[in-house]
Recover the amino acids of this structure.
């Protein structure tokens, strides 16, 4: 037993019940923070930030496009790492998070592709091209769709979880490819404006609301992930006594 | 860590490494073929295939745009700093098409090494600047150029 002692905290963290009860308290704060950040970022970005010298006002779609893309990529890592933790430690909550991350990530990738197309028409002169960045981003969408679809192909949860986790892990290599595609190949899509090293190639007045929007999207992602995971917990743990109690208590409170 | 979990961790790492190597090799194999366009020097050195539709892109050379007076015919040079490629196109150009900006043309090379384009796309760079700042920067640039010219002329006098 002594061998397992150091890992008990980890397994407690992976208890769906513990997660459900803890997040109950986080939700209102997270919701307020998300709303505040997104409203501030949108008003600042769409109305207050100066227009671009060349593109005019059409550049403002960046305030949706970039945050959605950034979080769609980060969300894939969250999904894949949750899947890996589930595979290794067989933690149910981990698989639940993986499943919850897939539809949110797919939605964000879709937003990134659609806003990019809308911006592409007036800027490039076309909605769509098959360059390395856009194509690899489309592959990301299909990977998310694959993980969502796999859950419905198995009748038993355990097999579906394992298959989903393996697909998530296999697709993980696509994320750095998307990120570096604009540097490795000649693409129609421009290189990154926000760089890991060095200053962003964007005026500070335009960059500040973008940062607010990116933090806002991360906050929104956390909120959505928690809500999806809570629903998943109730769906899967419906036989557990604490869920039965929770459900039976609900009407009594009213 | 429990030996079974250690084994599972190894399997997970194997999946990640194996898929990364596989996709990495594919990306390496794609190499230059995954480029969306050729640069003018690639085209003029014969790296682009002949008699098929290709895309070529670069910066539109300042003062090189020649428009026809009675049609939508337009001709311009694109450059990558090393070589210039003439592009001929008939149609409406995108709003952001301008001298000194990047553009990508799709078409076939003719005998005179002119790209007969069927489509021209504007390629935007990663820089975003408010108009006032851009104006100020342009003015500062012009001032500097004038100063340089004056110094140059004074040097001769």
């Amino acid at each position: 037993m002594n061998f397992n002692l150091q890992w008990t905290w980890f397994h407690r963290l992976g208890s769906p019940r513990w997660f459900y009860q803890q997040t109950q308290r986080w939700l209102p704060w997270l919701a307020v923070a998300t709303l505040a950040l997104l409203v501030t970022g949108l008003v600042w970005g769409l109305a207050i930030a100066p227009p671009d010298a060349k593109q005019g006002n059409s550049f403002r779609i960046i305030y949706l496009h970039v945050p959605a893309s950034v979080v769609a990529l980060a969300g894939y890592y969250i999904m894949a790492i949750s899947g890996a933790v589930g595979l290794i430690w067989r933690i149910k909550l981990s698989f639940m998070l993986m499943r919850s991350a897939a539809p949110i990530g797919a939605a964000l990738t879709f937003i990134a592709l659609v806003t990019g197309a809308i911006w592409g028409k007036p800027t490039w002169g076309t909605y769509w091209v098959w360059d390395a960045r856009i194509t690899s981003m489309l592959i990301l969408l299909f990977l998310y769709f694959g993980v969502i679809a796999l859950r419905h192909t198995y009748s038993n949860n355990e097999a579906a979880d394992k298959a989903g986790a393996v697909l998530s892990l296999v697709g993980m290599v696509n994320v750095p490819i998307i990120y570096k595609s604009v540097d490795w190949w000649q693409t129609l899509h421009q290189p990154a404006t926000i760089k890991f090293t060095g200053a962003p190639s964007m005026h500070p007045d335009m960059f500040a609301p973008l940062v607010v929007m990116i933090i806002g999207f991360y906050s929104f992602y956390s909120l959505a992930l928690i809500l999806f995971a809570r629903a998943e917990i109730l769906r899967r743990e419906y036989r557990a006594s604490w869920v039965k109690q929770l459900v039976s208590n609900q009407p009594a409170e009213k | 860590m429990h030996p079974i979990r250690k084994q599972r961790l190894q399997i997970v790492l194997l999946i990640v490494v194996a898929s990364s190597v596989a996709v990495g090799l594919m990306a390496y194999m794609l190499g230059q073929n995954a480029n969306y366009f050729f640069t003018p020097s690639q085209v003029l050195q014969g790296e682009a295939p002949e008699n098929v539709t290709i895309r070529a892109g670069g910066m539109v050379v300042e003062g090189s745009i020649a428009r026809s007076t009675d049609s939508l015919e337009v001709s311009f040079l694109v450059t990558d700093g090393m070589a210039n490629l003439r592009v001929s196109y008939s149609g409406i150009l995108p709003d952001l098409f301008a001298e000194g900006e990047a553009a990508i043309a799709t078409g076939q090379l003719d005998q005179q090494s002119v790209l007969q384009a069927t489509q021209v796309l504007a390629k935007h760079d990663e820089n975003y600047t408010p108009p006032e700042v851009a104006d100020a920067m342009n003015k500062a640039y012009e001032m500097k150029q004038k100063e340089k010219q004056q110094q140059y002329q004074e040097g001769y006098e």
In short: Chain B has a mean pLDDT of 86. Chain B is about 40% helix and 25% strand.
